[in-house]
Amino acid sequence: MKILYFDELSSTNDFLKQEYKNYQDKTVIIAKKQTNGRGRLTRTWVSQDDLTFSILFKNEKKILYHMIAPLSIVYTLKKYNVEAWIKWPNDIYIDNKKVSGVLIENITDTNIKFCDIVGIGINFIEKEIENTTYLNKYGIFDKEDFLKYLLELFEMLLNLEDKDILDLYKIHSLLLGKRIKHDNEIFLIEDVTFNGELVLKNNHMTINLKVNEIDIKTSIIPDN
Ligand code: BTN
User: Fold this and answer.
1) Interval 95-143: pLDDT, tens
2) What is the pLDDT of residue 222?
């Protein structure tokens, strides 16, 4: 992967959204500082001295980036003996606190079959944000080394079959097997599909839940 460093960008995802035509497949854009980092669901991504980057992909076929990206982070953390989990759809948690988030955006361009921007933010230093954690706490300080391992693992995961990627995603899923309250019904989270939907089951029905279908009344029921 070709890596390009910038001191400051509004957002590495936004940069690639504008400039994707000028860069080749697997270009990595890293910004030391983002002035307008974005998260999913119109959230902001606050970072300073953390790791924030986006990877541009131009492909002929659909790839499961929404699973590969979080898995690359989980497996990088394993190298440091830190156990991490994927909280649906693709947040990374350590000790039940969020350490990293992924923002995947698709570009529509008639000349490129699948053009995707995979944005990754990883907390290295402490944040004033509730329920978050950071890698310095786990003795991980070197962002360069971390990125190097992560990109190597990303490349490895790109070579796997979709079914193997899905299996690995399920093994590291924080929510699979938990109970969830949705539409005033209690369900068991029984499975995850290739496109990242949760399969919810109870005695009356089985439904597939897309990320954009959850609302404020949807909640995970804690284990006792
Ligand atoms: C989330 O948790 O909601 C996703 C956070 C994604 C943040 C990364 S930082 C690099 C890239 N550029 C952005 O503006 N966002 C992503």
Assistant:
1) 999 999 999 999 999 999 999 999 999 999 999 999 999 999 999 999 9
2) 83
Query: What is the Cα 67 distance to its own chain's centre?
Result: 7
Calpha distance 46→50 (Å, rounded): 9
Residue whose Cα lies nearest atom 2 of ligand 1: it is 101
Q: Are 192 and 166 in contact (CB under 8 A)?
A: yes
Pocket of ligand 1 (CB under 6 A): 11-13, 34, 37-40, 43, 45, 52-54, 91, 101-103, 119-121
How far does residue 39's CA lie from ligand 1's centre (Å)?
4
pTM, full prediction: 0.95
Reading phi first (left if > 0) and then psi (alpha if -120 to 50, else beta), residue 39 is in beta
Q: Is residue 181 a contact partner of residue 218, using CB atoms and an 8 Å limit?
A: yes
How far is the centre of ligand 1, averaged over its atoms, from the C-alpha of 8 (Å)? 15
Give the sheet arrangement for strand 2-9, strand by strand.
2-9, 27-34, 51-59, 112-122, 97-109, 91-94, 85-87
Among residues 105, 102, 98, 106, which one has the least CA distance to residue 123?
A: 98
Alpha carbons 34 and 12: distance in angstroms, whole number: 7
Pairing of strands 91-94, 2-9: unpaired
